[in-house]
């Protein structure tokens, strides 16, 4: 029943806040090593969708499977699932009282029970991956936004996740810092990491995505590969949306 | 003219050791109030922020009771009322420690509560996203931040608590003020004795604040909460 090809299966996720239906029966499957990018107007439930996948927000309906195991209704096992679904937030959410390297190693020690020495080594290796090794002993307040986001990516990667969830990872950054973060994410894609990315960076979306999902009104309105999306007349709505961004870019 | 002054100084020198030993009692009362305040106040603050409706209600009632009554009323209530009713014949000193401790917990719980609530919710969200349980998130992420944020406000409890200890005179605890007035009633020398006691209080106040300020600087983290060298506590 569950195709072994899929590392992550999302089925019929719905979520309302009061009268407003933020997510309306959203379903999709993700293959190992695949990058899916979610685009669409603000307030269409993209971020809520990511949070429903690792249950930071509890969906009212729908089910999620990771490696064939059900994540929804998993009780206290959710903590084990969350380690395998690394999340990166728009506002980084680095632990403000801990240095960069402590941010990366703390869950290894407290959650995984790794010994501090091994955890430190692994944390430094993860920081090296995102080019932040030299900043290991700096506190979050001493980092630029781009640096902080790279540390938060390292923090999620340290748990050896099966899937990475990026929730508008560059929306709080200026263009220059955006680039350094996007480079890191692109490298992860090349290395075969499975990723779901919510972003407003259209150039990045089309260059890194195996599939683009255009969301509108809490539903997946259109979905397809970037090539299809740019050439196939079926994707009129998505093209129109991306076109808006182009116009805006020219105007700016 | 000179003779009474010389007499007063001689009396003061005679009684000074007796006066000084009052410091030990006063200090014990202060430490009890601050120590029990952290020991009970911190869990109460957590209960008030993260607890169920019943827990939040119980903490609110507790805080309302211990902040709502004058400390002297609390002392009398426990010393002459509650403990005797429970058939507990406790020394005044122990009663004072219990009362000041419970009262400290009520006040300090609100300092810690404010600190916990000032931490952005993203800290807990990030902790949970890494697979931490709620308790692990509280222990490893929220508490270390909350304690640092609370420290300046908590330090400001010190002079309050110190000056409050003097009311324990009313139930006969052998603290600084009790001893002072005993010396006065035995020697009929008033002003120099009270001045000496006042000087000791001020010295205790100053050195305690200084020590807490050093502590604040020591645990300060760059860019987080109160900064090293912040002078507002001076």
The total of helices of chain B stands at 9
Number of spatially distinct domains of chain B = 1
Report the CATH architecture of chain B. Orthogonal Bundle
Average pLDDT confidence of chain B is 91
Write a brief caption for the model.
The complex is a heterodimer of chains A (252) and B (234). With 252 residues, chain A is an alpha/beta fold.
Characterise the protein shown here.
The complex is a heterodimer of chains A (252) and B (234). The mean pLDDT of chain A is 92. In chain A, strand 9 and strand 10 (219-224) form a beta hairpin. With 252 residues, chain A is an alpha/beta fold. A six-stranded mixed beta sheet of chain A has the order 6-7-8-3-9-10, with helices on both faces. Chain A has a four-stranded antiparallel beta sheet with strand order 2-1-4-5, covered by helices on one side. Chain A has helices at 46-53, 78-83, 100-110, 116-129, 145-157, 175-190, 202-208, 226-231, 236-251, and strands at residues 6-17, 20-31, 35-39, 61-66, 69-70, 85-88, 163-167, 194-198, 211-216, 219-224. Helix content of chain A is 38%, strand content 25%. Chain A is globular, with a radius of gyration of 18 Å. Chain B is flat. With 234 residues, chain B is mainly alpha-helical. Chain B has one domain: MetI-like (MetI-like fold), CATH 1.10.3720. In chain B, helix 1 (2-50) packs across helix 4 and helix 2 packs across helix 4. The A-B interface holds A 54, 56, 76, 79-83, 86-87, 89, 91, 93-97, 106-107, 110-111, 138-142, 152, 155-156, 159 and B 120, 122-123, 125-133, 136, 140-141, 144-145, 148, 221-224.
SSE blueprint:
The complex is a heterodimer of chains A (252) and B (234).
Chain A: E1 6-17, E2 20-31, E3 35-39, H1 46-53, E4 61-66, E5 69-70, H2 78-83, E6 85-88, H3 100-110, H4 116-129, H5 145-157, E7 163-167, H6 175-190, E8 194-198, H7 202-208, E9 211-216, E10 219-224, H8 226-231, H9 236-251
Parallel strand pairs in A: 3-8, 3-9, 6-7, 7-8
Antiparallel strand pairs in A: 1-2, 1-4, 4-5, 9-10
Helix pairs in contact in A: 3-4, 3-5, 4-5, 5-6
Chain B: H1 2-50, H2 53-68, H3 71-85, H4 92-118, H5 121-129, H6 134-155, H7 157-164, H8 176-187, H9 191-219
Helix pairs in contact in B: 1-2, 1-4, 1-7, 1-8, 1-9, 2-4, 3-4, 4-6, 5-6, 6-9, 7-9
